[in-house]
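Researcher: I've been going back and forth with a colleague about how O-antigen ligase domain-containing protein might be arranged in three dimensions. Neither of us has a model we trust, so I'd like an independent prediction. The organism is Streptomyces spectabilis, in case that matters for your notes. Sequence below.
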Amino acid sequence: MGRDLMRGALSGGPDTAGARPGAAPSPAGTPKAVGIVWALLALNTLGSAGAKTVVPLPRSLIQMATMGALVSAFALALALNLRLRIRASAFVFLLTLLLVPSVISSANLEVGYGALFRCARLSLFIGTLWLLTRWWDGSLAFVRHHIRMYFAVLVLVAAGLVVSPGTAMPEYYGGRLVGALWPLTPPQIGQYAAIIIGLTVLLLLGRQVDRTSAVVIIVPSIVLLLLTHTRTATLGLLIGLVLAIGSLVLTSSAARRFFAWTVVCALVAAVAFSSALQSWYLRGQSQENMSNLTGRAKVWDALLAAPRSTGEKVFGMGLSDKSFGGLPIDNSWLAVYHEQGLIGVSIVATLILVLGGVALLRPPSLPRACAIFLISYCAISSYTEAGLGDASPYLLHLALAASLLAAPATATAVPTADVPARHVPRWARR
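Model: Here is an independent structure prediction for O-antigen ligase domain-containing protein. You can compare it with whatever you and your colleague have in mind.
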């Protein structure tokens, strides 16, 4: 039954104009294997470091699986697009430019040979996106691929919670939910749950999924999100949905009703459960710990105060594991500055601004609302999470937004052979 609900919720059939006004139709010629390529890219970005699992998995084995997924994704995308037909994409072009400071800074080997390995990984990631641009036409096909993959990850997390609750909610993470079968941290799980909830809510408002199927996806995702106690993902979800639904208010009566009911329910919940919400948000932390963002501010101050040469300021230190002094940076902008310098920061900022500007210029539609949600979520999360400068789920979210904002491909007319004019005798012409 659950499989039937998922199939009904995420079926990739053509969208009718009545169900989604102003939206581009689903691509008729998109191979099903494109969804496999997208899932392999998502698998590569899961990472290899995280919580302790029920069955200890060697990090080398996990890295082989994730890198194998990326190589397989590139090979499959190349097999699907042997003629190398690609579409112009400002997003992927800017990502390609980001490779320049990455390679220049990593060539110094200040952070070891791992920097060159990460450059090769980023190159394969971007190359696969270039090959997939052939099927970027503003439809919701990639949204369904996105939800399928990350919902499967959440099912794996829920299975770990059932199999070993103590491992899934360990004390060293403050009782927050982690991956017990695959090493996933609470922020990762919270991110995946928030993205799934937001996209499914928008599909429900656009009548692309029935209510029963939406409940099957949204309710378990909300439970897992609450168990992670991830503040960034929760705020990103709420603010992203407000902006996305706000873009549909003028053209969708369902969006207006949902927005009104959400405001009323939020006010009632804020009054009735204010103490419980405050306790959940604080997670038992002191006021001092909250003020320095759980120790992040100390790492940021140390990173900015570290001496750097002019070349290191411009090009960075090279791609690393997003840490400084053995502690995670947990800020996309400082991580990009540390690894790719001021040039990298400029490129990433331009990337966000271009996507946001294109989204604002598009007419109201469901794909545009999904893109606004993804862009705003990534922009909010960039303050306390790293990943905008390297192959990561955040770049995959933004790639999905770019595919939603792409203009539909125009069909080219088939050239016809010129028919020679029939010779008419002179006497007939007279």
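Researcher: What would you highlight for our discussion?
Model: I'd start with this: The beta strands are 323-324, 327-328. After that, consider the following. Residues 1-5, 12-28, 411-416 have pLDDT under 50 and may be disordered.
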